[in-house]
Amino acid sequence: SCTSGSGSGLPFLVQRTVARQITLVECVGKGRYGEVWRGQWQGENVAVKIFSSRDEKSWFRETELYNTVLLRHENILGFIASDMTSRNSSTQLWLITHYHEMGSLYDYLQLTTLDTVSCLRIVLSIASGLAHLHIEIFGTQGKPAISHRDLKSKNILVKKNGQCCIAD
């Protein structure tokens, strides 16, 4: 598998060409900064968050954050790449991440009744991801303490194993 030295996604030069290899399949959500699409890349589903060029600062901030050393954690959304592409004569800024077909915790809770064990699995996975964000790791391979600032059920994704990962 091909990753950058930080373990936070593809090497930077590879990231810059990923958009050309992705087929957008369906729009799965709209947010403050644009749309989220399910895409196909190398035979796998990926999530593609598409920012408009006017939201370049937001795209850059998220890209920079996901490229932070040691951000990889099972309860934080997995980053693949970021890229710029031109569609319909306008620039689009893409953030490509793992795709979780079960959707947001918000949507999941509308349709699902949880037993105690499932509820605890969700709560512990969110707490684990949040603790990893908040902890500062020192050294050359370290990471700063990171504050999420918008943690809510719509920004948490449900994984197939019943755990969650923090997004946005």
From TrEMBL:
Its EC number is 2.7.11.30. ATP binds at residue 49. SMART domains: GS (SM00467), S_TKc (SM00220). SUPFAM superfamilies: Protein kinase-like (PK-like). Its main location: membrane. GO terms for molecular function: ATP binding; metal ion binding; transmembrane receptor protein serine/threonine kinase activity. Gene3D superfamilies: Phosphorylase Kinase, domain 1, Transferase(Phosphotransferase) domain 1. The keyword tRNA-binding does not apply. Keywords: ATP-binding, Glycoprotein, Kinase, Manganese, Membrane, Nucleotide-binding, Receptor, Serine/threonine-protein kinase, Signal, Transferase, Transmembrane, Transmembrane helix. Residues 22-168 form the Protein kinase domain. It is a single-pass type I membrane protein. It is found in: Membrane. It comes from the Eukaryota. InterPro entries: GS_dom (IPR003605), Kinase-like_dom_sf (IPR011009), Prot_kinase_dom (IPR000719), Protein_kinase_ATP_BS (IPR017441), Ser-Thr/Tyr_kinase_cat_dom (IPR001245), Ser/Thr_kinase_AS (IPR008271), TGFB_receptor (IPR000333). It catalyses: L-seryl-[receptor-protein] + ATP = O-phospho-L-seryl-[receptor-protein] + ADP + H(+); L-threonyl-[receptor-protein] + ATP = O-phospho-L-threonyl-[receptor-protein] + ADP + H(+). One of its GO terms (cellular component) is BMP receptor complex. Residues 1-21 form the GS domain. It is an enzyme of class 2 (transferase). One of its GO terms (biological process) is heart development. Belongs to the protein kinase superfamily. TKL Ser/Thr protein kinase family. TGFB receptor subfamily. This is receptor protein serine/threonine kinase. The gene is Acvr1_0.
